Amino acid sequence: MNTDRVSKEKYYMNIAEEVSQRSTCMSAHFGCIIVKDDQIISTGYNGAPRKTKDCYELGYCLRRKLKIASGTQYELCRSVHAEQNAIINSARAGVSLLGSDIYLYGQRVLDGDITPLKAYPCFICKKMILNAGIGRVIGNDEEGNIVTYDVLEWTEKWAKDDMIEDTQKYTANYKSSSS
């Protein structure tokens, strides 16, 4: 019996990590895969929309140039989040996400330093995940450990409390360098 066999969660997280290598963000690389019935049905990474220039091609990050604080004003970023791209790619292929799981990997990439970054959906992505019918989000924490979030818990909390209050509990804290 092979006791060194990697768990399913680690297997899928490894794939999400590999997907993150396609990212075109100068601050953080995120990779996402969506799995349903033990089959990968979609992938996505954070990057500029199809057929547009990304930060690397332009040579600068708009958010850094405008001195926008991490975790705020996502609309002023060229990149589409990894979760959003995976959901969009699924829709383009006509694949339902009901009952699926998202595996999200994140790492900070600043000044040549690469460290794990808490892979947790932003407020906009959480709403998209909820409406897509996704059941769980599996991400990594700052130490690289796998953490699982139950989307139903978000729904129940937001049904009871004001969902806007939830946005102040988490910021990405990318510690952007000056550029």
Word description of this protein:
- It is globular, with a radius of gyration of 16 Å.
- It has 179 residues and is of the alpha+beta class.
- Strands 1, 2, 3, 4, 5 and 6 form a six-stranded mixed beta sheet that branches.
- The protein is 30% helix and 22% strand.
- It is built from six helices and six strands.
- It starts with 7 loop residues before the first helix and ends in a 19-residue tail after the last helix.
- A hairpin with a 5-residue loop joins strand 5 and strand 6 (146-150).
- The model has no long low-confidence stretch (mean pLDDT 90).
Strand tally is 6
Judging from the principal axes of the Cα atoms, what is the shape?
globular
SSE-based structural type:
alpha+beta
Distance between the amino and carboxyl termini: 53 Å
Q: Give, in order, the helices and strands.
A: HEEHHHEEHEEH
| Average predicted confidence as pLDDT | 90
Rg (C-alpha, Å): 16 Å
Biggest β-sheet strands, sense, barrel = 6 strands, mixed
Uncertain runs: none
Tally of separate helices: 6
**Beta-strand content bin:** 15-25%
Which percent range fits the helix content? 25-40%
In short:
The protein is of the alpha+beta class and 179 residues long. The chain is built from six helices and six strands. The longest helix has 13 residues, at 8-20.
